[in-house]
UniProtKB/TrEMBL annotation:
Transmembrane segment boundaries: 78-98, 110-132, 138-158, 179-205, 225-246, 253-272, 284-305
GO molecular function, one term: unfolded protein binding
Keywords: Membrane, Transmembrane, Transmembrane helix
Alphabetized InterPro entries for the sequence: Chs7 (IPR022057)
One example of a Gene Ontology biological process annotation: protein folding
Designated name of the protein: Chitin synthase export chaperone
Pfam families: Chs7
GO CC, one annotated term: endoplasmic reticulum membrane
């Protein structure tokens, strides 16, 4: 029976589910538990992301041969690698564009949000790209940092909504200090917990007492529940600001589209992943579709922010008023 905090169903049925990198080491480092790793996960040098996945993309450079894998040398998760690289260029362009909008409310905070998302992309490329052997310390470290960045990103997202209420003046220490402090706290806390899970340092915040359960409530909360809660709160606050405070409707469509793209990205990750993986004989999975949709959601979020903020201050220090 699946319990709250269980990763086993996700690690088996969702190809390239990043956080499974942390649990593989739990099993592979204990000789008494290695027998649990079967099928695609049996050989750490070629194993895809996941724990005994029904379908997965083998490590780049290894020979593949199986019902869902075909034959030949694996290129790794090449589709998601390309999409992550292109997404980095897109987000870099948005960072530059946001910096130019000098008078826009929340400019600094939105720029920091974009920077955080930009930072998640190379880590996603590395943690799902099948570059490193499963169970390696390097892969655990990259995955732990990736988890911390994701948790910090969603705090930054929520903080952008709070700044948009203008209860606190944007760009001031009163806004930036809690923004940065909580970003650091979410990053440090989540990264530590992820390391704890991956390296088995303790059982207080890390995995359960039985590694075979693939269970960690703190990790599940910070990588699954917290992002969903932050996204819902952000959408609710921005809906209030746009419809009730600004009395506008057009910007709201941007926020609705962004929310829709984010939901679709999660559906692509969890529902389409196995279908695409099996249909392509383990050459690609749903991760690249999810990354496209996530990046599109962030891009539309920028357009929504742009539509409700000013581009620049009035250059005329003595504007003409009607008499």
């Amino acid at each position: 029976m699946t319990r709250f905090g269980d990763f086993a169903p996700l690690c088996t049925n969702t190809p390239s589910y990043t956080w499974c990198n942390l649990f593989y080491r739990q099993l592979s480092s204990d000789s008494s538990l290695k027998s649990i790793l079967t099928g695609l996960s049996a050989d750490a040098n070629s194993a895809p992301v996941g724990i005994n996945p029904v379908c997965g993309i083998a490590k780049a450079g290894t020979t593949i041969d199986g019902p869902h894998q075909g034959t030949g040398k694996s290129l790794g998760n090449i589709a998601n690698i390309v999409v992550c690289a292109v997404s980095m260029l897109v987000i870099l362009g948005l960072i530059v564009a946001s910096q130019k909008r000098k008078a826009a409310v929340g400019r600094v905070e939105l720029r920091n949000l974009l920077i955080l998302y930009f930072l998640t992309l190379p880590f996603q490329l590395l943690t799902t790209g099948s570059f490193l052997a499963q169970g390696s310390t390097a892969l655990v470290a990259l995955t732990a940092i990736h988890a911390g960045l994701v948790a910090a990103f969603f705090w930054a997202l929520l903080m952008n909504a709070l700044i948009a209420t203008q209860k606190i003046e944007d760009g001031t220490p009163a806004a930036l200090v809690p923004y940065l402090l909580f970003c650091a706290a979410f990053f440090a806390g989540t990264t530590y917990i992820a390391f704890d899970v991956g390296l088995g340092i303790t059982t207080a915040l890390g995995p359960s007492n039985d590694p075979r359960e693939l269970r960690s409530i703190p990790l599940f909360v910070l990588t699954s529940i917290w992002p969903a809660v932050a996204a819902i709160l952000y959408f609710g606050i921005m809906t209030y600001i746009v419809l009730a405070v600004l009395n506008e409707t057009r910007p709201m469509w941007y926020y609705i589209l962004s929310a829709g793209l984010f939901v679709l990205s999660q559906l692509a990750w969890f529902l389409l992943g196995k279908v695409i993986c099996e249909g392509s004989t383990s050459k690609v999975d749903g991760s690249f579709v999810a990354t496209i949709l996530e990046t599109a959601a962030v891009g539309v979020l920028y357009l929504a922010w742009r539509s409700i903020t000013e581009d620049s201050w009035d250059d005329d220090p003595y504007p003409m008023y009607p008499s």
